[in-house]
Amino acid sequence: MKESWSSLDTFEPNFRPLVVIELAKSTKEETREWLTRRIADKKANGGAQLLVKPLVTEDGDQNIYLVGASHFRLLLGAETVGLVKECTDNSMRTFTYSSRKTFKGFADDNQSFLTMAECQYIIKHELENLRAKDEKIIPGYPQAKLYPGKSIVRRLLTNGILIQIFPLHDQEELKKLRHTWYGRVKIGYQPLDEIRCYFGETIALYFGFLEYFTFALVPMAVIGIPYYVFAWEDYDKYVMFATFNLLWSTVILEVWKRLCAVMTYRWGTLLMKRQFEEPRPGFHGVLGVNPVTGREEPVYSSIRRQLRIYLVSLPFVCLCLYFSLYVMMIYFDLEQWALDYHKENESNFSSLMLFVPSIIYAIVIEIMNRIYRYAAEFLTSWENHRLESSYQNHLILKVLVFNFLNCFASLFYIAFVLFDMKLLRQSLATLLITSQILNQFAEAFLPYWLQKRHKKRMKKKMYSQKTDTDLSLVEQVNLEKEMGTYFGTFDDYLELFLQFGYVSLFSCVYPLAAVFAVLNNITEIYSDALKMCRVYKRPFAEPTANIGVWQLAFETMSVISVVTNCILIGMSPQVNALFPDSKMDLILTVAFVEHMLLAMKFVMAFVIPDKPRDIQIKLARLEFESLEALKQQVRATDYKASSK
Amino acid sequence: MKESWSSLDTFEPNFRPLVVIELAKSTKEETREWLTRRIADKKANGGAQLLVKPLVTEDGDQNIYLVGASHFRLLLGAETVGLVKECTDNSMRTFTYSSRKTFKGFADDNQSFLTMAECQYIIKHELENLRAKDEKIIPGYPQAKLYPGKSIVRRLLTNGILIQIFPLHDQEELKKLRHTWYGRVKIGYQPLDEIRCYFGETIALYFGFLEYFTFALVPMAVIGIPYYVFAWEDYDKYVMFATFNLLWSTVILEVWKRLCAVMTYRWGTLLMKRQFEEPRPGFHGVLGVNPVTGREEPVYSSIRRQLRIYLVSLPFVCLCLYFSLYVMMIYFDLEQWALDYHKENESNFSSLMLFVPSIIYAIVIEIMNRIYRYAAEFLTSWENHRLESSYQNHLILKVLVFNFLNCFASLFYIAFVLFDMKLLRQSLATLLITSQILNQFAEAFLPYWLQKRHKKRMKKKMYSQKTDTDLSLVEQVNLEKEMGTYFGTFDDYLELFLQFGYVSLFSCVYPLAAVFAVLNNITEIYSDALKMCRVYKRPFAEPTANIGVWQLAFETMSVISVVTNCILIGMSPQVNALFPDSKMDLILTVAFVEHMLLAMKFVMAFVIPDKPRDIQIKLARLEFESLEALKQQVRATDYKASSK
């Protein structure tokens, strides 16, 4: 790999390019100079104190810069972002430069103490925290206003001068990772620690959750198979399966919290202090004083945001939900009409006509989902949230509700209005399987194929026929900058969420759903891994301690599934036969059982501790130590004062 | 007040007695000397560095000691316990001795910077943290073993050498407080800040909650009155009342959290760091090493505790619940028998007999409650919890479940098994009103009367006829040490909890309950205030940031009340008349409405933020400042390192 950097190595032997900055081709010379000077400038002068080099491509353009940093600078940055690392005594502690010798694996010449993903995260953090001092505008762009304390990179991004910042892949590391991850056929766990080192905690946690969820579904799948094989129709067996399913889903969600705590403790993010969040790039408002920081920044009244949320977004979402239901009703009418038509005519044409409504509906749903997604993004952006996290939460909530309705409304209608269990089972199976196949295709294999074709063309253009690992740096950067951007784990979690819905909402009608989910997830792991390694640009690592709002989403789904399953069991003819005289007793019994199950779920969620005991003890020990340190400090003052 | 301390003032002019230590009369001279020496010894030598004086009573006994501390010592103690105080710039900050000048109202000669309750809390904390160094036993008591780090005071308490430690009343302050609190008839708020200064946060928060709860019940009471006056029986009016009630109860519990945050922010406890909890006095086990502190202390396996909880306590509680239900069934049988007997005989004797079952049942319930309380305390103590907080939570849970059943089981039976709404209304009214009257009597007036009689006798014995304020210190201590001990706010909250149950569980049947609750609570404030000021020993202040497990208990009750009210409305003849053909539609509608209400409750609890915006901003500012301070520190290292 070294040889390819030869042009750079000549003048700075230990410059290791970590992050790529791509400017617009038309960027003025003046701006380029100012930006690189600011990035390279000393901290004391308000710079980021990073190393920055232009990447000279063959056509002589100079709009791409490589950013790196000295090992010492990275260590200081690790302290600034508050990285937590393992000490020689096996405890996890916040890294500080002065205590660096106490950390495991630290040596002044050991470049691998910080993983590459951590280094890139530090550089991203430092770049984003490069702030305007007394500049009023971006040099060369009088329309791009600055004020003291404004993040320069964010202003450059919003003004289109900066096209993108992305971290570079490390071809050798990637090759190793690919090999252990999906390169060979094997039964076993994913190399989560390696994934975390390469892609960061958010993505590692997603793959961890995917793997855990797959394993957790196995018992359901195993129990579900005989129902299909022997065509069991006994009501007590279905009740047993559903009850097991409901309690199991509570248990797995609680146990996941514990596993997640174990993993993120090992990775250090469980202990990492939340950084103060800067306004997100799209946030705008009148320049005022932030009451928290006392800094000048755009301010937007929270009441106006609330008004926008409750008076515009909420009604709009409700309208969309209503519209989606309306479309569903039209679909059912069409379906009925097609059936009637087929009954009357009994021709080849009429039997073909039977499929038309389903096809139209599937297409319309897909179109609605896409349009709604844009609308949701537009609305959430218009709500003008100050924080990226709050923007994400509002967006997730909007998309989640709509997708839930779109996916499950027809099933609810079939189950609780048409009372047609056979149709329900059939629709459930069709929806689940087709959505799984389509997803895998659209999500990984299609982009992979496109990417591969693009790469070949690129290589042809450059007249070189080397394999991946001996690409020159210029080629590598040019290839990677054209790759698609991975927009976070949202869609991946959404897919799992909907799958969880298919498995648990109507589990007592279709026990085989868990089997399909398990099969899908095994290939999903491979296709998602392929997607991360081959299709998309490397994403920046994001430290995180849990799967956030998705935990709540999954828990809500498991509460809803208690209600649906109880109703389904109550409606089954076998249960109805038990109460031949009184429908009322039946309903009351079902309602009672449902309430008991819900109560049991809450008690279980309450009784199972969120963190395993050893993690609790480790956390308590750290807290105790910091309290003791405080006391020592007090005692020192104490002696001093009393000896006066 | 000063004159009464004359005997002490002669040799130490600024000794202000704050806390009283009472030793057993038989305590050996050797032990007394050792203890006082340890308390007075310098911090550097492992002492508590407090001032301690024997109180010589008239009969020459020397088993009572007064403990105080210099102003300087108290300020250092305030730093140790982590008190949070207001700064001159109106922000709340953790007090440190070195930054003392930045705090509001601080002056080196201003003794009132710390409230008396805070001073007493500091002294209690310092006494409890007085630890054995190399002593193997308590001098004079070879059976009272010590090990390095063992709290001396706790060992003295468990061995019966130390009888009690309690804080002294301040007669003048108390008189002022009594006057503003309940001395004059007035409509207005309680002086919560003064109560907090005198009794500490836990008690002030109880009175704050009591007051808030009373105000919150007023709208329900106002809406409830016309139902009684005009004898409204329209179903839609009842539904409206119940719906309002259910949503209202969610709102008030959420709003309380916000108010509580406002109050505890002002008091500084919202920001106060939780101290590391020592093992509770009764905790025992094999001497081992605490994995958190690394100190030697008794260790008890958590698995054995879990076994005791789940294999002994849980079955026992279930058995008790079953037994309580069984007794209730016997009561209903007796009631029926008495009715039949009366119908047959129609004599004076038989009409008297009608009351017998109720009286017997009331007495039996009271006896069961008391026995169960002892059993619960014994069991929870036997479960051997390491922490006082965990002991309290387990005790509260046990007592709560049993009391809930005992109070409401008969009402549930009448409502949902006998379907007798008239009897339900009647029983509810009787239970509510009699329990309120009995409680107020047994809780405050009876002890007050006993206390007054005792005081008179004491005074007579001492041949003095002075009023409270000019009691000598010796007399004051002798009076106060005989007063009853206030065992915390448990029973007071329990009373409110059960009252909340009476008001909300069957609100649609008896809207007048809220009226009685409001009336009761107004007098309750006065009787509880009287109890605190006159009847009991002054309790130690306990810093707290919320009402803890009671918030959860009240929220659970409000969830249960959704279910009960929906069923009651569903059973009402008016609603039944709406569904003349199909009972099934009725039940389904009721179940649907209930689920919607529950969902609405959860959404509301989720949407209403737990802390008001300004408190959120203040907390965020503090967090931001500490992050910035950390960065400054990093930057300092940064400069230093880069200038190398």
Name a few traits of the molecule:
homodimer, alpha+beta, 10 strands, globular
What does this structure look like?
The structure is a homodimer of 644-residue chains. Chain A contains 21 helices and 10 strands. With 644 residues, chain A is α+β, with helices and mostly antiparallel strands. Chains A and B meet through helix 3, helix 20 and helix 21 of A and helix 3, helix 20 and helix 21 of B.
* Biggest contact: A-B, 43 and 43 residues
User: Mean of residue pLDDT of chain A?
Assistant: 84
Order of neighbouring strands in the sheet with most strands of chain A? 2-3-1-8
Q: How many strand elements of chain A? A: 10
The oligomeric status of these chains comes to: homodimer
Taken from the alpha-carbon principal axes, the silhouette of chain A is globular
What would you report as the Rg of chain A, rounded to the nearest angstrom? 29 Å
Mind summarizing the main beta sheet of chain A? 4 strands, antiparallel
- N→C terminal distance of chain A: 65 Å
- Count of separate DSSP helical elements of chain A: 21
Class based on secondary structure composition and strand pairing of chain A: alpha+beta
Family (chains A, B): Belongs to the anoctamin family.
Pfam families (chains A, B): Anoctamin
Subcellular location (chains A, B): Membrane
Transmembrane segments (chains A, B): 212-232, 238-256, 309-332, 352-372, 395-416, 496-519, 586-608
Compile the SSE list and pairings.
The structure is a homodimer of 644-residue chains.
Chain A: H1 6-9, E1 19-23, H2 29-40, E2 51-54, E3 64-68, H3 71-81, E4 84-86, E5 92-94, H4 116-128, E6 137-138, E7 141-145, H5 152-158, E8 162-167, H6 171-183, H7 192-199, H8 201-229, H9 235-267, E9 286-289, E10 296-299, H10 302-345, H11 348-353, H12 356-382, H13 388-416, H14 421-461, H15 473-482, H16 490-505, H17 513-535, H18 549-571, H19 573-578, H20 583-607, H21 613-642
Antiparallel strand pairs in A: 1-3, 1-8, 2-3, 4-5, 6-7, 9-10
Helix pairs in contact in A: 3-4, 6-17, 7-8, 8-9, 8-17, 9-18, 9-20, 10-12, 10-13, 12-13, 13-14, 13-16, 13-18, 14-17, 16-18, 18-20
